[in-house]
Amino acid sequence: MTAETGQNATARAPKAPKEGTTRACAVCRTESEREVALHFVRAPDGRADRSGAARLAFDVRRKMNARGVNVCPKLACVKKLRPGLPGIQALGKVLPINAEFLDELSATLENDVLDQLGLLRRANALVVGADPAIDALKAFRAHIVMVASDVAERTQRDVKDAIHTVLDQAAWAKTDKLEGTHAWQRNSNVRNPLLVFLPTKVQRLGRALGRDVVGVVAFGEAAFARGKKGERAMQALVARAMLSKALGDRMGESENG
Questions:
Q1: What is d(CA 215, CA 206) in angstroms, rounded to the nearest whole number?
Q2: What is the pLDDT of residues 215-234, one digit of tens each?
């Protein structure tokens, strides 16, 4: 018997419990996946007003070594952020959320979405172009389509028609009944397609993907890692794209108003 066995052996340290995968929104208290929720921290650059209040900073990749607060990726919750919320009070004095903060958040989200689409493109996991995206939809190789803000109306109509075709027909599959006659039933293996409009114009989307102009991109589950990790990454990308568009629309409305 060795010194490491028996009653006198040193007990192994217990494994640390795994960190939960969900985070509660500081505004509505709804639980969101950790990767999907937006993480804000007290700005690490040290800037503060005379009262000691600092601005909030968006921790894009959750890599800032600072205590933070989580918020749903929804415009309503982001606009309701305020220093008096319990989660933010723990960060110390912070400045109120204003139009400049929302503008910066919109730009950061848009850049992050473009960076991720660029990574998918370099990994050959992104379908680029309207016709290839429509073909991928109908072949069930993609179920998420993202469209640039200034893409032609005809292209938008073609993409929407393809999505309706998938919803109305392709998502249903024939099955044999016990009696031998076929019927139609919902195909649980087919995901409903989702159309997401970006605040990005075709030229900028093209530059992010190494092209002159790109109006439509598409991808599916195969573009991400398998299992829950990949699913959460896909959900986060879609949520950030949608919030970026909502923030961009808010800016446009304020300018027109």
A1: 8
A2: 999 999 999 999 999 999 99
- Residue showing tokens 């990574």: 119
Number of helices (H) and strands (E) in the chain: give both, helices first: 7, 11
Give the domain 105-256 fold. 60s Ribosomal Protein L30; Chain: A; (3.30.1330)
Tens-place pLDDT, residues 83-138: 888 778 777 788 788 898 899 999 999 999 999 999 999 999 999 999 999 999 98
pTM: 0.82
Taken in order 57, 59, 63, 68, the sign of the CA dihedral is positive
Tokens coding 101: 């903060």
232, amino acid identity: R
Name residue, tokens 């500081």. 26
Q: Where are the domains of the chain?
A: 22-95, 105-256
C-alpha pair distances (Å), 77 with each of 38, 110, 141, 243:
11, 18, 34, 11
pLDDT bracket for residue 1 (50, 70, 90): very low
- CB-based contacts of 155, cutoff 8 Å, min separation 6: 130, 147, 215, 216
